[in-house]
Amino acid sequence: MSVDLMPNRFRPGEAELPQREAHLISRRDAVLGASYRLQYRKPVHFVRGEGMWLFDPDDRPYLDFYNNVPSLGHCHPEVNAAMAEQAARISANTRYLEPQLVDYAEKLIATFPAELDRVVFTCTGSESNDLALRIARLASGNEGVIVTSYAYHGTSAAVAAVSPNLGAAVNLSPNVRIVELPGPAGIPHDQAADFFEAQVRLAIIDLQRRGIGIAALLFDSIFSSDGVWIDPPGFIAGAVDAVREAGGLIISDEVQPGFGRTGDHMWGFARHGIVPDLATLGKPMGNGFPIGAVVGRSQPMEHFGQTARYSNTFAGNTVGIATADAVLTILQRDRILDSVVSVGQYLRHGIEAIAAELPGIRGMRNAGLFFGVDIGFEDSLPAQRRAMALDLVNAMRDDGVLISTTSANEDALKIRPPLICQHEHVDKFLEVFHNSLGRITS
After folding, report:
1. In CATH, what number is assigned to the domain containing residue 83?
2. Taking the CB of residue 249, how many other CB atoms lie within 10 A of it?
3. Closest to 273 (Cα-Cα) out of 299, 249, 239
4. Which residues touch 242 (CB under 8 Å, ≥6 apart)?
5. pLDDT at residue 33 above 90?
6. If you average pLDDT over residues 257-268, what whole number do you get?
7. Are 112 and 166 in the same domain?
8. Are 258 and 279 in contact (CB under 8 A)?
9. Half-sphere exposure of 112 (CA within 13 A, CB side)
10. 293 inside domain
11. Spatial distance between the Cα atoms of 84 and 106, rounded to a whole number of angstroms
12. Rounded CA gap, 246 and 141, in Å?
């Protein structure tokens, strides 16, 4: 049975398109590889962005409640100015002395717990996770990796092999063990930690018995691809202890939850009361500019650096560093995390009010400005829930608001607006959400 790896996508013949878009799609299909897919049943065509908004060729605005990569909104003028100014001066690599590289590294490290005191720069989250796995395997002397059941950690061969989310055609490494999250399994909060720890310990035993050993527990601390199953805070702590007892390292994938997305903390792992050995960062770090990093404890980082060669010419280039520095400056100066908390609460209350009025919302989870909202009627089948969620996403797209779906069944809404989101943007989202949900459930 074939599996649709991107159910919320354009399929030729399903939507009537203007000639302008139809012609562009025809040209696109003639030159791009088949792995490219257009989002939404009726593709969106954007020519510019500004803050929370994207604009099509007719200057129709779309409210973006989906894209986490432009963490400070589209085309932030201060970020763009820093990028352009540095690009006009010089773009150089880390093999040359550059004060801003060191300045930014010090500034970034200062946002982490004291135990995490080294940084290596990359270009993307995929590269960050790839490098973190190399460090963990060298430091531990083992190969095994534990991930959650629908995790996504990137696109390189190494991280695709530890990303169950990519589908059956992408083979997982024989050294990977998958564990289930307590939320999707219906485990009560007071049993969640024991449930998760027990699975991790069994995975460690299996890896050891097969002579593989445990190199790392790799997790996205907001568990976004699994459906944003984030609670209860701290449920992963016992599993972390188990991995360390067995000689493995803890890798927190902070590409999506990092840089204040959860509001209460700069980094998602802090919500669980743990300090990882390695934390991986990606494009939100540069508001979409291709820059990432691995931040970690000095011992494994130094051991790797002294015994293995790692050269990445573009990583840590001066333009990327200037851009990332502008992002971090704005996050701290404008107290963005405080806003994320208050706006996230406002959005949660609004969705709760709609759920009390209209059918079709089975549950909701959030940390700051990252939401998972389960769609479907309680007695409906998985396929019916998925269809309903996709209908809702596309109805909202038609009304000018962008979101998408997540979870193994793609029946949870993924809502993650840029961190500059304000109450007036939430009000617009809630209006369209209410009207669209009302239409598809009536």
Report:
1. 3.40.640.10
2. 25
3. 239
4. 197, 200, 201, 204
5. no
6. 96
7. yes
8. yes
9. 27
10. yes
11. 23
12. 11
Q: Which residues pair with 49 in a beta bridge?
A: 54
Is residue 297 located within the same domain as residue 425? no
What is the Cα–Cα distance from 411 to 388, expressed in whole angstroms? 8
End residue of a domain, out of 308, 333, 358:
333
Residues 312-325 have a mean pLDDT of: 95
Centre a 10 Å sphere on the Cβ of residue 25 and count the other Cβ atoms it contains: 16
Residues 300, 222 within the same domain: yes
Asked whether residue 10 is assigned to any structural domain, the reply reads: no
The token pair at 349 is 């209350």
**What six digits make up the tokens of 352?**
């709760």
Reported as a single tens digit per residue, the pLDDT across 146-177 is 999 999 999 999 999 999 999 888 999 999 99
What single DSSP character describes residue 76?
-
The reply to whether 25 falls in a domain is no
CATH of the domain at 412: 3.90.1150.10
Count the Cβ atoms, other than its own, within 10 Å of residue 150: 22
What distance in Å separates the CA atoms of residue 82 and residue 71, rounded to the nearest whole number? Answer: 16
The verdict on 329 and 387 lying in the same domain is no
Structural domain count of the chain: 2
* Cβ neighbours, 10 Å, residue 233: 15
DSSP label at 13?
T
Within this chain, do residues 276 and 340 fall inside the same structural domain, yes or no?
no
Cis check: omega of the bond before 164, within 30 degrees of 0:
no
The pLDDT of residue 17: 83
* 162 within a domain of the structure (yes/no): yes
Domain extent, residue 435, equals 44-75+336-441
Q: By the 8 A CB rule, do 110 and 295 touch? A: no
Residue 389 and residue 163: Cα distance in Å, rounded? Answer: 23
Q: Are residues 180 and 289 in the same domain?
A: yes
Left if phi > 0, otherwise alpha if psi is -120 to 50, otherwise beta: which for 12?
beta
Same domain, 313 and 425: no
In a shared domain, residues 67 and 136 = no
Q: What is the DSSP string of 103-118?
A: HHHHHHHTTS-TTEEE
Non-local CB neighbours of 248 within 8 Å, separated by 6+ positions: 136, 140, 142, 144, 204, 213, 214, 215, 216, 217
Please identify which residue in the block is written with the tokens 């406002």.
Answer: 346
**Of 273, 300, 333, which residue constitutes the final position of a domain?**
333
Give kind and range of the element (H or E) at residue 127.
helix 125-140
